[in-house]
Amino acid sequence: MSEPKRLHPIAVLLNIIKSIKELVIPFLLVVVIPGKNEGIPGWIQPLVIAIIILFIIGNAFLQWLRFTYRMEEGEFRIESGVFVRKKRYIKFDRIHSIDISEGIIQRIFSLVKLNIETAGGSQADAVLSAISKSDADRINAFISEEKNANNPSDIDKDEVADNEYAAKSSSVFKQTLPQLFVMAATSGAVGVFLSGAIAFISQFDEMIPFERIFKDYEDFIEMGTIILTLFALVALLVVYVLATLSMVIKYASFTVIKTDEEIVISRGLLEKRQLTIPIHKIQGIRIMENLIRKPLGLATVYIEYAGGSMEDKESLSIMLFPLIRKKHLHEKILEILPVYETTTEMTPIPKRALSRYLLRKFLYLIPIIGALVWFFRPWGYLSLLLVPLAIFWAYMQYRDAGWSIEGNLLLLSSRFFSKQTLIMQRSRIQSITYKKSWFQNRKELATISASIKSGITSRVGVVADVEEKDCLIIKSWYLPKKSSRLPMI
Questions:
Q1: What count of other Cβ atoms lies within 10 Å of the Cβ of residue 24?
Q2: Sheet holding 445-454, edge to edge
Q3: Which CA distances in Å does 163 have to 88, 145, 220, 284, 304?
Q4: What share of the chain is helix, strand, coil (3-state, %, to 5)?
Q5: pTM score, two decimals?
Q6: CA–CA–CA angle 332, 248, 284 (5° rounding)
Q7: Cα–Cα nearest to 239, from 199, 180, 191
Q8: Which of 123, 214, 326, 362 fits a disulfide with 309 by CB distance 3.0 to 4.6 angstroms?
Q9: Distances (CA, A) of 130 to 103, 105, 145, 277
Q10: In a 3-state reduction of DSSP, which class is residue 411?
């Protein structure tokens, strides 16, 4: 495939939509908010709008016309730029993942969007917004074949061992529709959905006549708090249902296919996505259990790998299992990522650490309660109800904190709101550090942390108030026998 190729012409429409999104605020200032200066002729505003529209359309067409891509000499080559010509060459052996997705517009024309990403990039290195499915499959297969043929020794010994261990028959994980509804209903997405709606509405508070609207309904509001409470409950229920449905639509037909060298994850109803991840690039896995799922024995599992882009936040945190029962987790990890086989049994932190977890909560809580009681008396006394909540929160954090070493795996478990268990291979760990304060030193405790590469930054697992002698065990496991120093802060 050495001849330069252009994207499908529908890419012009996609470029227009992208430009509108980027210029939405300036466009609203011109279109929605009329000029207050009576001296300005009325035809100025339509002229400005027409110029903006013509500029967007013309720029979108030129972007499509000047964009070409090809593959030759072990590189993926892109030439683009309307006024300044840009040439980008991406070596096949630096490509970490290929993400194939289908938006609504792409699906109408039987097209796909293909993102090519390398390690450490802040954005996708190559974006083909509109190509045929056959071309996308051909590019994916061609790059994989070239990488395997040209770089047979580009994997270190640990990675070779991992691949040999993972080279089994393909296995498939599929999330059922009832499981998706449970996942969506317990995800906490309603908070994100509600905050997003409030933030969006607040952008138009100067254009929407809120005062007039509420003034017309003052008599209705004065009927009592019962109607307002019912109205608020109905509104929350509607938001909850919409948030749940949006999650189900987003992750519908969620499927994981594992081959000898790659994991292919696909999902989506309206927008279909397919992400291909090389197994030897996976840095670790993360198990998340929120306050609702943990009592039900449910968890969500993510892949940590050196890829993704800032433009696509979802690519920075790859979901492997949206929802899975903990009792089935060991079996599924063994099928898809056998090198991460673990019982996830933890060594708990000592009982004397509980007082420190309680102390940290009260150090934050006492000033808050004092301020609320002082400025909002007598209702401020209700803030005292935060005390049992803080005690419960501290106990949950203490109970879920722990660590474990199983062969070449290090497990660190902690909780902020959700319980997080980070599973890391020794060869993938970038650094391990521990620190101890004067108060921890008195109780022979320390805080241990380990980091691995994840996306464009790092994923860090932290466990506070571990036995100090346990840090020495982790040190001797991680560092070579000749070394005796573990970074300490």
A1: 10
A2: 429-435, 445-454, 457-467
A3: 31, 16, 68, 15, 17
A4: 45, 30, 25
A5: 0.74
A6: 35
A7: 191
A8: 123
A9: 10, 9, 23, 22
A10: strand
Q: Among 88-97, 101-110, 284-293, which stretch is predicted with the lowest mean pLDDT?
A: 88-97
What residues pair up with 75 in beta bridges, in sequence order? 72, 91
| Sheet bearing 171-174, strands edge to edge | 126-132, 111-118, 95-102, 272-278, 262-267, 255-258, 171-174
d(CA 299, CA 85): 48
Report, as an integer, the average pLDDT of 72-77.
85
Using CB atoms within 10 A of its CB, is residue 403 exposed (0-12), middle (13-18) or buried (19+)? buried
- Of 461, 469, 466, 453, nearest in space to 419 by CA: 461
Q: Which residues pair with 448 in a beta bridge?
A: 434, 463
Q: What is the pLDDT of residues 134-172, one digit of tens each?
A: 888 888 888 877 776 665 544 444 444 444 434 444 667
CA dist., res. 251 & res. 178, Å (int): 12
**Which residue, among 428, 441, 431, has the nearest Cα to 462 in the 3D structure?**
431
- 3-class secondary structure, 410: strand
* Token digits of residue 451: 């980091």
- pLDDT computed for residue 242 by the predictor: 84
In one-letter notation, the amino acid at residue 390 is A
Q: pLDDT tens, 93-139?
A: 778 778 888 888 888 888 999 888 776 555 667 889 899 988 888 88
Q: Are the C-beta atoms of residues 431 and 292 closer than 8 Å to each other?
A: no
Give the pLDDT band of residue 478 (cuts 50, 70, 90): confident
C-alpha 127: how far from chain center? 19
DSSP code at position 478: H
